[in-house]
Design brief:
Blueprint: H1 2-31, E1 32-33, H2 36-46, E2 50-55, H3 60-68, H4 73-82, E3 84-89, H5 94-99, E4 107-111, E5 117-122, H6 127-150, E6 157-160, E7 169-172, E8 176-177, H7 184-190, E9 197-204, E10 207-211, H8 214-222, H9 224-227, H10 236-242, E11 249-256, E12 259-263, H11 266-274, H12 276-280, E13 282-284
Helix pairs in contact: 1-4, 4-6
InterPro entries: AGR/TXD, Thioredoxin-like_sf, Thioredoxin_domain
Domain Thioredoxin: 20-139
Signal peptide: 1-28
Length: 296
């Protein structure tokens, strides 16, 4: 009789655990949208970012996240409170992966309801790290919404359109000079710091660049992201550790994977060099108005 009661108790415990697991799985599944349009409408209503999680059944890290991250109650609660979640199987929706430029899996892309990218992160994240990522994206979107409501209208200036003559004018807001006027093309190609000509310039993402020749400017415009400092010249270590967009300086510049990064201190540059992938795995999309003003 005692053995029978023990067996019945054990069976009841197994049933209870199974029910809890099924309940957690059901709760996790109800969190995820499968249609981008539906997710956008929900995000607009709630004023939240959209988390687009790209994965595949054949992707081992993706399946590990499914088992060990997305089933955690704390992760589910954080996702439900901070974002509108969209799960995308890249085999079923390759056009979405191509649209967002996703080539590695898993990848998490945080976007505004309009489709503008906020952040992008690749690879497996354990629960605590993943929740921190979600909180960071949510806070960044809230800050952007607040800045748009309070930002005054910028004065309008004119400058020559790149590749055309001075009679062709485009309107643009005042921009910040990057690299202290050194030519980004010469720097990228020969690692030499040579000042550009202030009469040969262009603006890209609200930042101004000088060039040593019209040919260098034209080469820049063919692939600007290859030549500009990453993260709009902000210190990637501060972005990662403190979520602060602070412009680095050419004094503390460093190339990694043939891309230029600028830092605010020698210590940050040294920390970056010890583990660069840690700091660049999460890509933050910035606007120039988000860069903190600094006095040097």
């Amino acid at each position: 009789m005692t053995h029978l009661r023990c067996r019945l108790a054990a069976l009841a415990l197994v049933c209870l655990l199974s029910q809890n697991l099924l309940s957690q799985n059901a709760c996790a599944q109800s969190l995820w949208h499968t249609d981008l349009g539906e997710a956008r409408r929900e995000a607009e209503r709630l004023k939240r970012p959209i988390l687009c999680h790209f994965g595949a059944e054949w992707c081992a890290p993706c399946q590990k996240m499914e088992r060990t991250v997305f089933t955690q109650p704390a992760v589910i609660d954080q996702l439900r409170a901070s974002a509108v979640c969209l799960k995308i199987d890249v085999d079923q929706h390759p056009e979405l992966a191509q649209r967002f430029g996703v080539e590695r899996f898993p990848t998490d892309v945080f976007i505004e309801p309009s489709g503008q990218k906020l952040m992008e992160s690749t690879g497996f994240h354990p629960p605590d790290e993943y929740m921190a990522l979600v909180v960071r994206a949510s806070r960044r979107y809230s800050d952007i919404l607040a800045s748009r409501q309070t930002k005054p209208a910028a004065p309008v200036v004119t400058s020559p359109e790149v590749g055309g003559d001075s009679s062709q004018l485009v309107k643009s807001a005042p921009s910040m000079l990057m690299l202290e006027g050194y030519c980004p093309v010469v720097l990228q190609k020969s690692r030499q710091w040579i000042k550009g000509n202030s009469q040969i310039f262009t603006e890209y993402k609200g930042q101004q660049f000088f060039f040593t020749s019209p040919e260098a400017r034209q080469e820049f415009m063919q692939n600007p992201d290859y030549f500009v400092p990453q993260f709009l010249g902000c210190d990637p270590v501060l972005l990662f550790t403190a979520d602060r967009a602070v412009a680095g300086t050419i004094e503390w510049g460093a190339f990694y994977d043939n891309r230029l990064y600028l830092f605010t201190t020698e210590e940050n540059r040294r920390n970056f060099k010890t583990s660069p992938d840690k700091y660049i795995r999460t890509r933050v999309v910035l606007d120039v108005h988000q860069i903190e003003s600094t006095f040097r």
